[in-house]
């Protein structure tokens, strides 16, 4: 399938490693101009040092903070002249066990998993309207149904993100902007929760996968990236306001 993404300008938040990096590199492979993002400038520069080129820039900043989000967009527009695609990938499932939440933890997790997306969408709205652009948010199956053991703060934040994507589709659509989300299941990459779990007890992980996941394996960042670039491409130009699960067959609802 021809995705017709060449020369599109893309900003991928949280793209110095893992899922975000795989998404950013996949857009590069399609001939896009890509802005990689992370909160720490030095770590970001180090992370993408081996993929530098005319079509790549590093845009450091905290996506949940309006002033930093605006500075990120300004850098993209200065470098590439436009913004066609926004991927909101910032997030983390690390939190306290269910029943141990306090107000500060609720705020921290929502800032990371919800406000990082809502802030970026609001910041980039007019730029994306000018290009009739597309938005892809990375959510989680924890926002789709109860996943035993998953932090309640994280699950609630991702459920809110899913509601935001569905609810924003109409007002954004009036501007010619599409928005969709991907809800990954258990994705393995260096430094991920599943990387830690495998190192601690590989047999237990194998049992979980055999019991709960139809394909009986962990996913890869590339599994998510493949779906992300399709959703952002003209091939999906009649698709908006939807949540796409990619979890190897884990969710039951």
Can you describe what's shown?
The protein has a seven-stranded parallel β-sheet, with helices on both faces. The protein contains eight helices and seven strands. 46% of the residues lie in helices and 14% in strands. α1 packs across α8. The chain has a single domain, classed as Rossmann fold (3-Layer(aba) Sandwich). β5, α5 and β6 form a beta-alpha-beta unit. The chain is globular and about 50 Å long.
In short:
The chain is α/β, with parallel strands linked by helices. The chain contains 8 helices and 7 strands; from the N terminus they run βαβαβαβαβαβαααβ. The chain has a single domain, classed as Rossmann fold (3-Layer(aba) Sandwich), CATH 3.40.50.720.
CATH architecture: 3-Layer(aba) Sandwich
Shape: globular
Helix content: 40-55%
CATH superfamily: NAD(P)-binding Rossmann-like Domain
Counting H and I runs of at least 4 residues, what is the number of helices? 8
Span from first to last CA?
Answer: 30 Å
CATH topology: Rossmann fold
Q: Residue-averaged pLDDT, rounded? A: 94
Number of domains: 1
Structural class per helix/strand content? alpha/beta
The CATH class is identified as Alpha Beta
């Amino acid at each position: 399938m021809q995705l017709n993404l060449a020369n599109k300008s893309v900003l991928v938040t949280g793209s110095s490693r893992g899922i975000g990096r795989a998404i950013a590199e996949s857009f590069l492979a399609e001939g896009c101009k890509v802005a990689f993002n992370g909160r720490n400038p030095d770590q970001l520069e180090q992370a993408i040092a081996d993929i530098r080129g005319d079509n790549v820039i590093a845009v450091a900043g905290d996506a949940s903070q309006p002033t930093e989000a605006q500075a990120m967009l300004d850098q993209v527009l200065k470098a590439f002249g436009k913004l066609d695609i926004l991927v909101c990938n910032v997030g983390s499932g690390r939190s306290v066990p269910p029943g141990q939440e306090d107000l500060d933890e609720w705020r921290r997790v929502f800032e990371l998993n919800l406000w990082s997306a809502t802030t970026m969408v609001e910041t980039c709205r007019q730029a994306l309207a000018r290009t009739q652009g597309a938005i892809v948010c990375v959510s989680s199956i924890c926002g789709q149904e109860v996943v035993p053991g998953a932090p309640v703060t994280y699950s609630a934040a991702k459920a809110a993100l899913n509601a935001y994507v569905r609810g924003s589709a109409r007002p954004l659509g009036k501007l010619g902007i599409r928005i969709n989300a991907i809800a990954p299941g258990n994705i393995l990459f260096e430094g991920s929760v599943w990387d830690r779990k495998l190192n601690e007890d590989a047999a237990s992980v194998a049992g979980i996968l055999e019991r709960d996941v139809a394909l009986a394996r962990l996913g890869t960042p590339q599994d998510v990236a493949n779906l992300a670039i399709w959703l952002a491409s003209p091939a999906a130009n009649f698709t908006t306001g939807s949540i796409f699960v990619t979890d190897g067959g884990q969710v039951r609802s």
